[in-house]
UniProtKB/TrEMBL annotation:
<dbReference type="GO" id="GO:0003872">
    <property type="term" value="F:6-phosphofructokinase activity"/>
</dbReference>
<keyword id="KW-0418">Kinase</keyword>
<dbReference type="GO" id="GO:0005945">
    <property type="term" value="C:6-phosphofructokinase complex"/>
</dbReference>
<dbReference type="InterPro" id="IPR022953">
    <property type="entry name" value="ATP_PFK"/>
</dbReference>
<feature type="domain" description="Phosphofructokinase">
    <location>
        <begin position="3"/>
        <end position="282"/>
    </location>
</feature>
<dbReference type="GO" id="GO:0030388">
    <property type="term" value="P:fructose 1,6-bisphosphate metabolic process"/>
</dbReference>
<dbReference type="InterPro" id="IPR012003">
    <property type="entry name" value="ATP_PFK_prok-type"/>
</dbReference>
<keyword id="KW-0324">Glycolysis</keyword>
<comment type="similarity">
    <text>Belongs to the phosphofructokinase type A (PFKA) family.</text>
</comment>
<keyword id="KW-0963">Cytoplasm</keyword>
<comment type="pathway">
    <text>Carbohydrate degradation; glycolysis; D-glyceraldehyde 3-phosphate and glycerone phosphate from D-glucose: step 3/4.</text>
</comment>
<dbReference type="GO" id="GO:0046872">
    <property type="term" value="F:metal ion binding"/>
</dbReference>
<dbReference type="GO" id="GO:0070095">
    <property type="term" value="F:fructose-6-phosphate binding"/>
</dbReference>
<dbReference type="GO" id="GO:0042802">
    <property type="term" value="F:identical protein binding"/>
</dbReference>
<keyword id="KW-0067">ATP-binding</keyword>
<keyword id="KW-0479">Metal-binding</keyword>
<dbReference type="GO" id="GO:0048029">
    <property type="term" value="F:monosaccharide binding"/>
</dbReference>
Length: 329
């Protein structure tokens, strides 16, 4: 390729800038020109872009958010929108499009193949880690740390007042954040997609554990970490149901958007650098319609469509360890 385009789409994730930097620098290293479209797929349709060169990306490896801005774009879901986007890429002589985003962005990119004949590559950037074909997504490690730091503070209050706190973390339809954050915070109870059967059973389960622990230890702090989009009505409803069902008073706390922001931790910067450079290598090798993943130490490519087909489950052995340990709590 002589000229490639980058964009960031969907939910922003810490490390997207590091991926922009690595892809840009590695492309420039190989004599490839790079432009960046702004506001996700909106930039493609409305021809809003900027040239990416070394000075532009020089100081962005450590900053959260994305210099290209991110957005959702309904227009891109229509054939007319996709055609307009493809026409703009053609007019700018763009040989390849690299999209840094989540599963929705990749579904869009897969469909875009029908309109755009150039190479397409996806780099997984989402705090949810819910993309199949890669151990980790860019932003996940930072989001785990952010949530853990916040919950450590909540734990101080829970300890001081010997109260029960119920903290809801993000993750969309995936339990990676809940499980990993819960483990790192020594949560007494973790509710994730893989161990949730129905609201009634969950209530019973929590209530019997809390009654048991109160008997053995007396009043003490107790921390429940739950995935979002799981218990109907979320953390607030669960707290109110616990009060009604078992006279258990607990304080619901929805962590929310702080989990998406912040400077990327080193692990995400390194992952983004590895994936960005590897994406350019794949373009040079002539590959298209693929997503970059990481498997242990190594980057790999998987068919783009396969990354969004299957539900990626959390690590079963980690979940089993957590459940074994929970018996002691
Ligand atoms: P994420 O990439 O973080 O999962 P979204 O699910 O919001 O975020 O998707 C981001 C964007 O990808 C959407 O706003 C839209 O432009 C595009 N997209 C998502 N699904 C489709 C689809 N079925 N067809 C075309 N484009 C899509």
């Amino acid at each position: 390729p002589n000229r490639i385009a980058l964009l960031t789409s969907g939910g922003d994730a810490p490390g997207m800038n590091a991926a922009i930097r690595a892809t840009t620098l590695y492309a420039l290293h190989h004599g490839i020109e790079v432009i960046g479209f702004k506001h996700g797929y909106n930039g493609l349709i409305h021809n809003e872009w900027m040239a990416l060169d070394e000075p532009v990306v020089r100081e962005i490896i450590g900053s959260g958010g994305t210099i290209l801005k991110s957005a959702r774009c309904e227009e891109f879901k229509s054939p007319a929108g996709m055609q307009q986007a493809a026409d703009n890429l053609k007019a700018l002589d763009i040989d390849a499009l690299v999209v840094i985003g989540g599963d929705g962005s990749f579904i869009g990119l897969t469909k875009f193949k029908q309109f755009y004949p150039g190479q397409t590559i996806g780099i997984p950037g989402t705090i949810d880690n819910d993309i199949d074909g890669t151990d980790h997504t860019i932003g996940f490690a930072t989001a785990v740390d952010t949530a853990v730091n916040a919950i450590d503070k909540i734990r101080d209050t829970a300890d001081a007042f010997e109260r029960i706190f119920l903290v809801e973390v993000m993750g969309r339809k995936s339990g990676f954040l809940a499980l990993n954050v819960g483990i790192a915070c020594a949560a007494e109870h973790i509710i994730t997609f893989e161990n949730f059967s129905n609201p009634g059973i969950e209530l019973q389960h929590i209530a019997s554990k809390i009654h048991r622990i109160k008997k053995s230890r007396g009043q003490c702090s107790y921390l429940i970490v739950s995935a979002e989009n799981l218990y109907p009505g979320g953390a607030n409803q669960l707290a109110s149901d616990l009060a009604d069902y078992a006279s258990i008073e607990c304080i619901p706390c929805v962590l929310g958007y702080i989990q998406r922001g912040g400077d990327p931790v080193a692990k995400d910067r390194i992952l983004a650098t590895h994936m960005g450079a590897f994406a350019v290598k794949q373009l040079l090798a002539g590959h298209t319609d693929v997503m970059i993943g990481i498997d242990g130490q190594h980057c790999l490519q998987v068919p783009l469509a396969s990354s969004t087909k299957h539900y990626k489950e959390v690590n079963a052995s980690l979940l089993a360890i957590q459940e074994d340990l929970q018996d002691l709590l």
